[in-house]
Amino acid sequence: MDNMIKGYIQSCELVGKRLDELRAQYHQLEEQGDILAIKELDLDRRIKLLYKEREHMQEIITTLENYARRTGQRGNT
After folding, report:
1. Position 76 pLDDT exceeds 60
2. Is the N or C terminus of the chain more exposed, i.e. has fewer CB atoms within 10 Å?
3. pTM, 2 dp
4. What pLDDT is attached to residue 20?
């Protein structure tokens, strides 16, 4: 159980880093006035999807941690 939680936490961190990259790219293109590139890269949609994915992963992490706490399995597996 502990390994599963750690895996979700690592994945969540990676999604956060990717969000930072995409937001930086979005802002850079926006400052350059290259709205066409933002649309071509579909940055708005990609950023929204990653936010949703990260939110779902955080919910799963919370659920797994609560389950492990209730069952006393944290650290045993």
Report:
1. no
2. C
3. 0.82
4. 98
